[in-house]
Design a protein that fits this description.
The protein has about 500 residues and is α/β, with parallel strands linked by helices. It has two domains: about 270 residues, 3-Layer(aba) Sandwich (Rossmann fold), CATH 3.40.50.2000; about 190 residues, Rossmann fold, CATH 3.40.50. Helices cover about 35% and strands about 20% of the residues. The structure holds adenosine-5'-diphosphate and alpha-D-glucopyranose. The site of adenosine-5'-diphosphate (ADP) has 18 residues, from helix 1, strand 13, strand 14 and helix 13.
Length: about 500
């Protein structure tokens, strides 16, 4: 089976969050199951700066965007450790920019950029030697792919028999643009209606994907339920509900070549369940040096690594650390970038508690690995969380997550209770209400358990042995592809009344 994965970011070439980790690992996992997978993504400045060698493919062609024909050139590489080809759509004006989607504000021309990317991906597919069975698009940036497949590319031999999958990694980002961007899509205005591409007078890329795709997935079963209702559906709950029969939730896996304390090149000393303490000590010495401290301290290390967005619960995190830092019971390390207000509040928090709260504002892959390796406790007080990867990385590195019970965190973290400790299923500390007191109570429970060395060591050893590798989840995607291909092709779409 030939599958084209279309994603706007992928590790190790360009990354802002978990989507990159998924897009960089799922294709290789599918390839291991015998699937012939290809990935296509934009050739951002980061891609050229990533240090991975890119070849010219000789493919250079024009893509229609509205009235214009925009030239693209295609570069090629492979996903590390695999033979999976990665194609990069290059256009300097659109993708040679400092960041992927914009800084504090999104780039004004993001509709145009991802129309160009999506059509270029399909044009490329038509120029490759063999046809594709599945077009699998990720998030709003690839949301137009299912519509293009059914409305503009239905007769192209490379795609004529293909089915489309739309994966939702985050319902809060839908790619909503002003109505006149419809002209840039090359699709007929008649599809700009409330049942198809229109959303409160605007053009909605994710909605388009959800309406036209043959199947929809999201990244955990709990999130699949949450988006079927308000507020989780972020206004698209009706669309999701109307397509309930083709929606499924598949929990993300983790790339165990990249996130593995036994082989990780970004941590100072490798470790496994038998020498966690030694490994963590070495990571702490390196982290202390990186943070400008003469030596690490002996308190439990509590960390947060993530986008500083409303989603991540940074507001309650700041409140709780503000209240708890004074008691000196733990050392807090925070790494993140995003909302300017959160960045400032975190800098103030660090300034108020020198030696107890360290804050690094920025995106730093090496530091993210070092923090996971050094940590005892990882905080994820998310308002909502489609899947979440940091808690799965925490398990692997012998850190215990403290999480809000929402989305994928419900499906991956089991609260520590006397019962779950006894039956060996405990894996973290879960709180329900989105409230700083609830987070504080859960963190206090974690710190109290940490003081009980024997119990903590057992907990750490047990989470480190959990298997969250991609194998199981990739198999579920493959089953879905097979199921979708076995169905009769959908009839040509008609505009809604
Ligand atoms: P999301 O996709 O919502 O950002 P996930 O938990 O799925 O959340 O994935 C986040 C990924 O991004 C993890 O690999 C995490 O280590 C990484 N990450 C987030 N912020 C940073 C940062 N400031 N520096 C380095 N890595 C980061
Ligand atoms: C999104 C979600 C996150 C998920 C990631 C990868 O960015 O916020 O929960 O893990 O995508 O699917």
């Amino acid at each position: 089976m030939r599958v084209l994965q279309v994603a706007s970011e992928a590790t190790p070439f360009a990354k802002t969050g978990g989507l990159a980790d998924v897009a960089g690992a799922l294709p290789s996992a599918l390839a291991r199951l015998g699937c012939d997978c290809t990935l296509v993504m934009p050739a951002y400045r980061q891609v050229f700066e990533s240090g991975f060698p890119l070849e010219r493919t000789g493919f250079a062609f024009d893509v229609p965007v509205g009235q214009r024909h925009v030239g693209v050139e295609i570069f090629r590489s492979t996903l590390p450790g695999s033979a999976v080809p990665v194609y990069f759509v290059s256009n300097e004006a659109c993708f040679d920019r400092p960041t992927l989607y914009g800084g504090g504000q999104d780039y004004q021309d993001n509709a145009e950029r991802f129309i160009l990317f999506s059509r270029a991906a399909l044009e490329l597919a038509c120029r490759l030697e063999e046809p594709f069975d599945i077009l699998h698009g990720h998030d709003w940036q690839a949301g137009l792919i299912p519509a293009y497949r059914r409305l503009l590319y239905q007769n192209r031999p490379a795609l004529a028999r293909s089915a489309t999958i739309q994966t939702i990694h985050n319902m809060a980002y839908q790619g909503v643009f002003w109505n006149w961007d419809m002209l840039l899509t090359g699709l007929d205005w008649k599809f700009f209606n409330w049942r198809q591409m229109e959303f409160y007078g605007q053009l909605n890329f994710l909605k388009t994907g959800l309406v036209f795709a043959d199947a929809i997935t999201t990244v955990s079963p709990t999130y699949a339920r949450e988006i079927s209702e308000a507020p989780g559906g972020c206004g698209l709950e009706g669309v999701i509900a109307s397509r309930r029969e083709v929606l499924s939730g598949i929990v993300n896996g983790i790339d165990t070549d990249v996130w593995n304390p036994q082989t990780d090149l970004l941590i100072p000393r490798h470790y496994s369940t038998t020498d966690v303490a030694t490994g963590k000590d070495a990571a702490r010495i390196a982290l202390a040096a990186r943070l400008g401290h003469a030596a690490p301290d002996t308190r439990p290390l509590v960390s947060f690594v993530g986008r500083l967005a409303e989603q991540k619960g940074v507001d309650i995190l700041i409140e709780v650390i503000g209240r708890m830092a004074g008691d000196g019971g733990a050392h807090y390390v925070i790494l993140g970038t995003g909302d300017a207000g959160h960045e400032d509040a975190l800098r103030r928090l660090a300034a108020a508690h020198p030696g107890t709260v360290d804050v690094v504002i920025g995106f730093d892959e090496l530091l993210a690995h070092l923090i996971q390796a050094a940590s005892d406790i990882v905080l994820m007080p998310s308002r909502f969380e489609p899947c979440g990867l940091s808690q799965l990385y925490a398990f692997r590195y012998g850190a215990i997550p403290v999480v809000r019970g929402t989305g994928g965190l419900v499906d991956t973290v089991i609260d520590t209770t006397p019962e779950s400790l006894a039956d060996g299923t405990a894996s973290g500390f879960v709180f329900r209400e989105f409230d700083s007191r609830a987070l504080e109570y859960a963190l206090q429970r974690a710190l109290t358990t940490h003081a009980d060395t024997v119990t903590w060591q057992r907990l750490v050893a047990s989470v480190m042995q959990q298997d969250w590798s991609w194998d199981t989840s990739a198999r579920k995607y493959l089953d879905l592809y097979e199921q979708v291909l076995a169905q009769p092709p959908a009839p040509p779409p008609v505009p809604a009344e």
